[in-house]
Description:
Layout: E1 4-12, H1 21-39, E2 42-45, E3 50-55, H2 61-73, E4 84-92, H3 108-119, E5 126-130, H4 136-150, H5 154-165, H6 170-177, H7 181-190, H8 193-210
Parallel strand pairs: 4-5
Antiparallel strand pairs: 1-3, 1-4, 2-3
Helix pairs in contact: 1-2, 2-5, 5-7, 6-7
Amino acid sequence: MPPAIAVITGDIIASRRLGPAERLSAVLDHALSRLATRFGAISQRYRGDGFQLVLPQAWQGVSAAVLLRAELIRHSRPRQRWDARLAIAIGHDDPWRDEARIADASSAPFVTSGETLDALDGDHHLALRLTSGDAPCLALLIRHLDALLDAWTPAAAEAIAELLCHPESQQALAERLGISQPAVHKRLRTAHWSLLQETLGYLERRLKDETPAHD
Length: 215
């Protein structure tokens, strides 16, 4: 059996109301670039505000989605929130190395991810599906995670995005952001960083169990 991959299909929320399209495009490109560096993600953008990513390590799918949303939310302005709807699908498929193939992909993880995004209602911005079957406990946990991210401020999202890319001490993060250590502590408390760490760690372990390696 081929290895498991994670497919993330998404679109920007209310993209037409977010100002110049060029700025939105640049921010999204930067976010996708960071996911490529951090997780080895291969991405494909589509006309308008849609995009799709493939991660070679399926268990990193949720962490990658959190980083992507953090990268967008950090650029929010007053009365103009930047965010995305993301649907993660975990399943087995051939290894992905050529991004040109993504647009033509029709295997289970790609189909499931697209269908899950289409099924997201207006109150939910994050979803997870396994092609092997339903996982109600994981789905419920993702809803809690979604609610946590929805409450982030841009400053909190900035701190989380940097920590997900550069695990380091609060003092080192303060120096990276050019702010005080107490200010970093406040941002992380606002973002519920400790709870987020535990949640992502649990989800990564569960997804590893759900998608064991195959020779």
